[in-house]
Amino acid sequence: MSSNSNHVDANTASAQALLASDTLPWHRKITYGFTDMSGNLLYCIISSYMLYFFTNVFGLSVGTAGVLLLIGRIFDAIGAPVMGILVDHTHSKYGKSRPWFLWMSLPFAIFVWLLFTTPALSGTAKVLYAGVMYILADLSYTAMSTPITSVLPNLTSDTDGRMQANSIRLVLGNVGNFFAVTFIIPFAGVLGNGNEQRGWSLAVGVYSIVAFILLIVAFLDMREKNIENEKVISIKESLKATKGNWPWVLIVVANLAYWTAFIVRNSSMPYYFQYNMGSKSLISFFNGFTIIQVIGMASVPFFVKFMHKWGTTVFFLAMTMVGQAWMGFAGSNTTSALIAWCVACIGSGSACTMFFAMVGDTVDFGEWKTGVRANGFLTAIGASFCIQMGSGFGSFIASMILSAFGFNAAHATQSAGSLSGISFTFVWVPVIIYAISLILMIVYRKWENHEPVVKADLAERNAKAEAAAANN
């Protein structure tokens, strides 16, 4: 009896020592952020300028370009869970997620460059080229971006370390977004010297080289923990990891609501400033201030120390809702509207940070509950799938409301009913949907309080597994 007790104590002590020593170095937190910086450096060019490039540079009709973008969105929605399953089926000396940065860095860079390179084709051949390159660029981005979230639970078991790494990741991701949406057009103009097609190809080519280097640096510095205990799991086992995983369900639904609200706001924003505020130039002006959200993202780890993860998420979602409502009350007062916009951006950017971090914690819960560690599948659904489906839902909701209120793009001046619809869509619909996400995060509190038990049990299991392996 005493021997058994000593054995248990030894395992417990080993587990505690494992938890205490499992810290993520700062240089690795930064290079982990390079993954999102690289992805945004290229993908934000696609998400912000693809339609413009297809119509104004590549030479497609707006109808054809719209169909291509719709097809690409369908592939996106399918690709996220499939990629998650592929990650769970990966077994290599580098781990499950890390090798995908090595494998996909070059294809991702090349396909995005080819997407913004106009070939000497015409007619159907040119349309096919555009469609194929758009789908390949989208799929290669999904294959590169899905491991960004799925690798985090394997970099460290320390939740504070994960939170810090995720915050750095999203701050650097915003830096990538800033350079993508701010400088690509003037850079293409300089390199093209009057030839837009040549300029875009060269500019995106330079961006692609930088993105490729960032991904390779991230891969070389990254280390996945406990990969010797990882095993290839089946699709059935991946699905099993969702059984009884209520924190994961809450994060998925709350994150889906978040992205739906976010896209409703962004989709209706150009209409609001052009028609309700009466100035099309305000669109770019206000968008330039979105970089301010990095302030909130960088401060997230400090808030978490005092308010915990669920409380921090609730706080920033509430802040977003306040900013949105303030926009509505600001009316035509540009200064007041700009302050409100900054408040909403800081809130939404910080809340986004929380969801990416917490979905990694649900991987631990799934393993604790079912014995299956499905990093890829759980994080793909909790992150990439939510973004893609939320984008689809958000755009659809915005378009349906605007249509119901009689919006007509052919009219330079909109009717009073149309203006009311635009204002309602931009200001109040996001507030309503953000509130759903906020309520779900209050419910999440129960599961976050249970995390110490989950972490301790998993550490003890790993210690026992290592001890058994050493004895064999």
TrEMBL record:
This is Sodium:solute symporter. It comes from Lentilactobacillus diolivorans. Keywords: Membrane, Sugar transport, Transmembrane, Transmembrane helix, Transport. It holds the Pfam family MFS_2. The chain crosses the membrane at residues 40-60, 67-87, 99-116, 128-148, 168-188, 200-220, 246-264, 285-304, 310-331, 338-360, 380-407, 419-444. It comes from the Bacteria. InterPro entries: MFS_2, MFS_trans_sf, Na/Gal_symport. The keyword Ribonucleoprotein does not apply. PANTHER family: MAJOR FACILITATOR SUPERFAMILY (MFS) PROFILE DOMAIN-CONTAINING PROTEIN, MAJOR FACILITATOR SUPERFAMILY DOMAIN-CONTAINING PROTEIN.
